[in-house]
Amino acid sequence: MSADDQVYVQALALGLDPAWRRRTDEERHDDGSHFGEAVAIAEPEGVRSVTYSSIGLEPGVDLLFWRMAPSVDALEMAAAALLRTGLGRWLTVRHSLIGRIGPSQYVRKPTDQEQAPFTGERSRYLVVYPFTKSTEWYLLSKEARQGVMNEHMRVGHEYPMVRQALAYSFGLDSQEFVVAYETDDLVAFGDLVRALRSTESRRSTVRDSPILLGIQRPMTEILRLLGAA
Fold first, then answer.
1. Quick check: bond before 210 cis, omega within 30?
2. Which pick of 46, 57, 194, 220 has the fewest CB atoms within 10 Å?
3. What is the H or E stretch that residue 77 is in?
4. What is the CATH number of domain 3-100+215-226?
């Protein structure tokens, strides 16, 4: 993959200062309007964003952006534009997970479940978290790792209503991977996670938290829920 073909993703979780809710209706409306405009303006810069609400779902997190860009620089510029505009001046970055999309060494031909980010219709819910494996995992032979992952993928394919995107964070962030799941069925997703807990791959897991949950909503709807519209 050439430098021109690079795709970076980011899960950007933002928390709103509680003091903002005590501003006047007019001030909140103006803040929301300017912020919504900044979100839209980011698109021509090559940054694509899907917006999620985490209001009351995640401590300290109100907005969750699932973003794609051709460079980390573009992610930085878009975030800077948001955080200096309107409502953005009252937001704090609570979590930022950055990774790069690349071909999997374990999947020869990805299915619709192992989807590329931002393709097809978005599901109602997004669950995203950092993921790190143990040193012992990387010291296993390629054949042994492939066998473990075959079991992991077999279990995943039993839940076709849950789609996954995987990004590599080696050298970019504290975790090794960013894992994102999309689904309209949170019960099925919970069953999948429980089933994966009993597979061999679980032995190599070092970190898979914090888990961030968001409900997919257009920015106008999120602003209304926040009281900015």
1. yes
2. 194
3. helix 72-83
4. 3.30.70.1030
